[in-house]
Amino acid sequence: MKVSQPTDKTFIHHDNAYELIKGLVFNFLKTHTQCSAAELYEFIIPKIILSHAFIDENNKVIDVEALLKKEFIYFEENNEYFWKNKVSLCNQPLGVLDLFAGAGGFSTGFKKANYIIASAIELDSEIAETYKKNHPETTLHNVDIRELPTKVVKEDFKNKSISCDIIIGGPPCQGFSMSGNRIRKNYEGKFDERNELFMEFFRFVRDLKPSCFIIENVEGILNYNNGQVKKEIYGLFESIGYKLDSKVLLSADYGVPQLRKRAFFFGTNKNIDPNELIPEPSHSPKNYVSIWEAISDLPSIESGEGSDLLIKENHTKYTDYQLKLGAQYQYIIYNHKASIHSPETIAKLKLINNGKRQSDLPEHMQTKSVHSGSWGRMEKNKPAYTLTTRINTPSVGRIIHPKNHRTITPREAARIQSFPDDFVFLGGITTIGKQIGNAVSPLLAEMIALNIQEKVMGRIGKVPV
To answer: Could you tell me which residues come within 8 angstroms of residue 161 by beta carbon, excluding any fewer than 6 positions away?
Structure first.
C-alpha cells in the first residue's frame, strides 16, 4: 500500500513520524495481541494517513506499509494475514527482584519492557525515597539486606501472584579473592564485609531459584587479580546449578549517549545458554546518540538558574532519543536546576571550548587533579564520557555543559543516563548525583530485558502471546 502525496494535511518531519507511527501501531497491537491485516488497514492506517503526511529526509511521503513490515511481524495463518508486535506482552509477565536497587535504573528498564518488579531492596533511606516515588507498585524494603529473611521477599511475590523469574542487581564485589584467598576473606585472611554483601545476592539466588540472574559491576572486575574474582564468582553459582557468562557492555552500543562500560554476569539454569541473555548492540560508532541529541530541547540556563520543577514551553520537534524518553508527553521538567558556581569558576569555564579540558588552558590557570578529564567541556556531537556521582564538580571530569558555562543539571545527567523524563529524583545534589551516577542505564537494562523476552522466555516457562 503506497501512500500518495497528500495536499491538505499536517506535514511531519520523519524524526517524529517514525516514532509516532510505531507508537500508534505498537499500542494498538499491545491491546489486541494481534490483528488481521484488514483490521489494521481499516482502523489504524486511515487514522494515520488522513491526519498526517509523514515526510522523510528526502521530502517524500513515507511508505507506511514498508515501515510497518520492518518494525512489526506480518504473517499468514489459515489463508489470512495478521500483524503483531515483534516483542509482545506475555500472558503471565516475568517477575523480578532488584537487589541493591539504588534509585531504580535497572528496575526502570525492566519495567518498561513489561516485567513486574515485585520486590526491591535498598539500604540508603534518601535513595529509597526516589525508588518509591518512581516505582510505587513495587514492594521496597529500605533495610540492610543482611537483616531481611528470604521468606519476606517470597511473600512479596506471593502477594502479587507472580513467580520470581529473574534477580537483578549490582552487589559489591571489591572484596573478592586477593592472592588466591577464598571468598569472604580479605588479603589478611580477615572477614570482608563487601564479600558478605555479595553473598547476600547469592543467598537470594540460592533460596528463590530464579531462572536467570544478572549482576552489574565495574568493568575491571572481570580481570581483577588475574581473573581470580571472575573464576570464584562462576564457581560459587555453578555450585548451585547455574551456568554463567559475562561481558563488558558499552552503553553507547545500546542507544545511550554515554561511553559507559560496565561488566555484567549472566546466570541461567534449566536449558538456557547464558550467552543468549547478552543483547546484540543496536548502535555502532557511526550512529551513536550524541549529547546534543539527548539534551538539546531542555531550557538553556546558566549557573544558579532553573528549578526542580519547570513548566515546559511549546516544543514541536524532538530527536528520536528524546521521544524515546517521553519528552513529548511531559509538560513539566523535573530536576533541571543548575549549580551555583563562583565568578572565578565561571570565568575559567568561559575559556574552555567544546570538547576541551583544563590541560588546554594556560598553565597558570591549571590546578592539580587526578582526573584526566578535569574541567572538561562535553563535546555536543559525541556521546558523553562515563558520568560519575559528582555531577556538579567541574574538577572531577567532563561534565561541563556543551554551551552554557556551568556543570550539567541533574535532568541533563538523567537524560545522558537514559532515565525517562517522568522519573523524579528526590534529595539534594549530592544524593541525586549518587542516584544517577551509580545507576544501570535504564535503556541498556531495557535492551537486556527485551532480549530475554525474545530469546528465552518460553524456556523460563512463560509463553509470549
So the answer is: none
Residue 315: how many CB atoms within 10 A of its CB?
Answer: 13
What is the per-residue pLDDT for 136?
96
- Phi and psi, residue 64, nearest 5°: -60, -40
Please check whether residue 417 is in contact with residue 258, taking contact to mean a CB–CB distance below 8 angstroms.
yes
- For the segment 454-465, what is each residue's pLDDT rounded down to a tens digit? 888 766 766 443
- 291-437 is classed CATH 3.90.120.10: yes
Give domain 95-283+442-460's CATH architecture.
3-Layer(aba) Sandwich (3.40)
**Could you tell me which residues are beta bridge partners of residue 96?**
117, 166
The confidence score (pLDDT) of residue 188 equals 42
pLDDT, tens only, 251-294? 999 999 999 999 999 999 977 899 999 999 999 999 999 999 99
From 35, 90, 164, 173, the catalytic residue:
173
Catalytic: 35?
Answer: no
- Which of 383, 354, 215 is closest to 283 using CA atoms? 383
The span from the CA of 95 to the CA of 154, in Å, is: 11
Q: Taking all residues of the chain, what is their mean pLDDT, rounded to a whole number?
A: 83
Planar angle of CA 452, 456, 459, nearest 5 degrees? 140
Closest CA to 84 of 48, 38, 43, 35: 35
Whether the pLDDT of residue 130 is over 90: the answer is: yes
Residue 101, C-alpha cell as written in the block:
536497587
The residues spanned by each domain of the chain are: 10-85, 95-283+442-460, 291-437
Residue type, 410: P
Distance between CA atoms of 222 and 152, rounded to whole angstroms? 33
